[in-house]
Design goal:
Elements lengths: L1 E7 L12 H10 L3 E6 L4 E6 L3 H16 L5 E5 H10 L10 E5 L19 E5 L2 E5 L18 E4 H14 L1
Antiparallel strand pairs: 1-3, 1-4, 2-3, 5-7, 5-8, 6-7
């Protein structure tokens, strides 16, 4: 069995895409996932599966579409990939709530600044299947737009670190 983390896109953020975490856990169990645990109400779930990443993602997306009546994007990573994101954080000396990991399943540009607009004092670095973004003044007033935001989903490093702990504990 592999320990995985699934990150749902646009769930319980800004009043859109409401999905109770107990329902998410039930949907995961119905999709054949084991030892399911959710973390905070923004679409984070940790679980075991003997199936490959693509199968897990498809099974979750199908269940979520049936429940929500629309497509909900799901990013799936193994426990070791999540731990690797924590270890590779280039902004580890900055507050964890000001550093985001933007997880994507599409190819990342060689230059993380490609297509970026509205940048002021934010910083962006490439990571493994993710971009790291440091928001020195927080996200509330930023005008930063990153093309990968359209299909990816971001979590602050405090959340990523907690998900890494939870996934590691599953073994």
């Amino acid at each position: 069995m592999t320990a995985y983390v699934a990150l749902l896109r646009a769930v319980n953020v800004g009043g859109t895409g409401k999905l109770p975490m107990t329902t998410l856990a039930e949907l995961c169990t119905a999709a054949g996932l084991a030892r399911v645990q959710t973390y905070i109400a923004s679409g984070n779930v940790v679980f075991h599966s003997d199936r490959p990443e693509e199968h897990v993602r498809t099974a979750l997306e199908d269940r979520l579409q049936d429940y929500c009546g629309k497509r909900v994007g799901v990013i799936v990573r193994t426990a070791s990939e999540i731990a690797d994101i924590v270890a590779r954080n280039p902004f580890r000396d900055m507050p964890g709530n000001r550093v985001m990991a933007l997880f994507v399943d599409t190819p990342l540009p060689a230059d993380p600044m490609e297509g970026v607009t509205g940048m002021k004092d934010e910083q962006i670095r490439l990571g493994p299947r993710a971009l790291f973004v440091f928001y020195p003044n927080g996200m509330a007033t930023t005008r930063l737009r990153i093309p990968s935001e359209k299909t990816g989903t971001a979590r602050n490093m405090n959340t990523v670190a907690r998900l890494a702990e939870m996934a590691a504990a599953l073994g």
